[in-house]
Write a structure and sequence with these properties.
The chain has 643 residues and is an alpha+beta fold. It contains 21 helices and 22 strands.
Length: 643
Amino acid sequence: MNKKQKKALRNIIIAIVLLAAIKLSERFIAYEELINGSFPTGRVILFFLYMIPYLAVGYEILRKALKGIKNRQVFDENFLMAVATLGAIAVALIYNGDYTEAVAVMLFYQIGELFQSIAVGKSRKNISDLMDIRPDYANIERDGKLEQVDPDEVEIGSVIVVRPGEKIPIDGVVVEGVSSLNTAALTGESVPLDVSETDNVISGCVNISGVLKIQTTKEFGESTASKVLDLVENAASRKSKSENFISKFAKYYTPVVCYSALALAILPPVILLITGNDANFGQWIYRALTFLVISCPCALVISIPLSFFAGLGGASEAGILIKGSNYLEALASTGYVVFDKTGTLTKGVFEVCETVPADPEMTKEQLVEYAAMAEMDSNHPISLSLKKAYAKEIDRDRVNDVTEISGHGISALVDGKRVLAGNIKLMRKFGLNVPEDLKETGTVVYVAVDDRFAGYIIISDVVKEGAKEAISLLHNDGVSGTVMLTGDSDRVAKKVAGLLGIKEVYSELLPADKVTKVEEILKKKNSAQKVAFVGDGINDAPVLSRADIGIAMGALGSDAAIEAADIVLMDDDPRKISKAIRIARKCMRIVYENTIFAIGVKIICLILGAVGIANMWVAIFADVGVMVIAVINAIRALFVKKL
């Protein structure tokens, strides 16, 4: 608890103790005799006794109500509570001398406010703990000693030292050391990330094991941790339609109920008086005051923003950064999910996916070994993928006479044998017959050894782990359609789409063509559905902006992704898209539940209060009880691990 909450709790306890003491003392002191006597001593004593607990819990409410009147912002919950309780005191003073209800209304209202404050504070603390990723210092090595400096003072290109247990303060490249990083604060994943020299690392990750020396590539303010924190902090400013509706609703609702209560207090008794009946002004004033307490819109005003706040926090904990509750609300209505292929559904890097020897005496391992040996000095992505597939250190003494044949491939002597590795034009150049109409998709590397065709290796972009499951999850979640857009060839696109279970695919598209396709989908979907586009956030900025919801996936550390997208998935798992939609839908269910529950209970209680059936105790439940229940329900949006 903070100081403010502790003070409120102390005042509540004091009020409860004093109220209990007063009620207990009434059994032993004959207040009734004093009250009914000719001298009003008992009435005065009783009034001042009840005012002590009333002011203990009501002083802040009365002060805020007066401040609102002074600032011409009259109609709020503080004004309603002040008018209702002061009115109840006036009725008791004039008629029955029982101030219990007035004190109880203020007491229970403050208990509800304290509960709400603790609940909001807890959810804020959970999020702030989660997002506690911005370090307070950076280690710079000077004269053989580590010196802690403000991260803002570290220039681009400086070398910082991160010891085990410390957070990486600034984005950079590892220049020395091997370690594992805890990325949970950014990605929501508990599996450590292994890094070594030349690996890029981002701020906010916690160094687990070895000492790392990192050359910074960004300034502190432009690093990932700072950008992510700014994104989360600014999310609350982008309000959903539901939040805007509640704000407008409360703005008009409160004055209406205040004037309605005034009319209820005056019109019925005046009409009764004119018609010659018993007016009983006290009874109608009591009903009007009960009406005011019931009408307080606390449950809606508090629980709806809290639901969205908790939903944003729960998504952040899962490594899903949503830039505002308006995007969270839109995500819940997602009907179509449109994917970019490369870097989104596929890894965006070349890998050997198939090896086919043509010689019965040639093994797959030997075929890859010959190709990797021949390509040992090339830095072409194809060559790098061959060397990665070989997975051994290349013995350069075994290779000589390496010749690059431009546009064709490589010729080299490996263990004294002439090895050719390249495209079909290389094979034709040397008069070798090879299969030409291969059905496999990807880049084909043909290999010949001593003028004999040895086989071919298929190298292609590899489908991401979890991509097929991600599409299946979206279909199970009720998403109407999944679409894939790519600039790749039609054959490659259809193969990837077939593997993943995507039926609608468009290939050989330029960035502008992708925007056109998304616009076509926007026109054909129904008005209640939203279209989400998922891309890498770098090459897809135009289409990310054009879709109803732009989602950048695999964007850990990508400035372009954080800037262009509405939602950023901080790791490379496409299954998080389905999780994000489920989080949004859970949040919206809670919002609707709270709205229907709060308005429904209040309408019923307002009618009962107006006709005299509901008393002040029912009013307390309609206000404080409904608020507490709605707040508890709202906090459920924070828990998303099992979604």
